[in-house]
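sorry for the late reply, my laptop died twice this morning and i had to redo everyting from scratch. anyway the thing you sent over, i finally got around to it. pasting the sequence first so we're on the same page, its 368 residues, then the predicted structure underneath. double check i copied it right bc i was rushing
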Amino acid sequence: MLEVNHLSKSYNRSEVLNNISFKLLSGDIVGILGENGSGKSTLLKIISGIVAPTAGDVHYVGQLSSLLEIGSGIQPDLTGEENYYLKGELLGLSRPDLKNRIGELNQFTELAPWMNHPVKHYSDGMYMRLAFGIALTLEADIYLFDEILAVGDTKFQQKCFETIINLSQKGKIIMLVSHNITELERYCNRFIWLKKGEVREQSDSPQVLDRYLRDQLMGSDPNKMLPWQHASLAFSQLSITNEKGEQRLTNTNEIWFSAEFQILKPLSVFNVTMHIQDHSGLPIFSISTSTSAGWIHEKKPQNVKLSTFVESGFLNAGTYTVSFYIQIESRVFQLRNLFFLGVSQSESDTQSHLFSGKIRTNFQWKQL
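ok and here's the structure:
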């Protein structure tokens, strides 16, 4: 059991959380959603004991394990195995008990060949595998995860979620913070929506996700998450308009996308892929520079402006999300749900009832 009572937190007279209350029971997998700055991470830090609340309290029964950022609690100068033993001993586990469990850690993370190497030489994906694996191998009753699956291959992400489901079936409580609506809808049985530090809604119905997306759409601005900075590149601006330069989009408009990047260092490989998903995260289509005629992968330091458009009538009315995958050399960075795109029904379209799905093709019948 985990109970949060009238929790509030202020920093320099700025209120981050205000009067947050909820109660979780054994087996709950709770999705915490909200825009950046809504207080999600602060809430988990208070529950885990990292940050003290200004008011209110937290009560729980059993052992709590938190993974609030990639590599949190991992000492870079120690090996993977040394980090495992250190974490376990801090939790009060004996060395023989930890030695009996290390095989589970190696099997889950698939890092056995690197467990005797210093963690500072690990890639981001290996770092995340180790941190997540340690958190799960050292059994707890309550688990807190904050956007920790944004890095890692699809196979490992699937393994993590299967493990989370198994933990829930054993009566464990899991709290997940994620901007991936599909992940929350698929794996969570409860949802808490935070907005400006307050609980906007909590429910066991996934319909709260639709209401959250519609609320996001009302004030959606892609540049809230920009500029996105990397040592070699900056993604500075994204603009989405109709063919007249207006922000109002209907299913009979062309939809224009314009993105601006600054290349800061010479790159041998630079690619940009834009993904359009439906409101639940199901992929609809993608547009990539890697398959665009005339695109040169190698870039010198320069400003790069990209533009593309979706033909009028292609997207049916609905709510969509826009994500960008940016390839810099051999690494791919995922900027998920950068923008919530609303396409409304045009009054001039009298045939929408004839077309199902998210897109409308120009395929035609021919009378023989």
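The longest helix spans residues 154-169.
thats about all i looked at so far, will dig more tmrw
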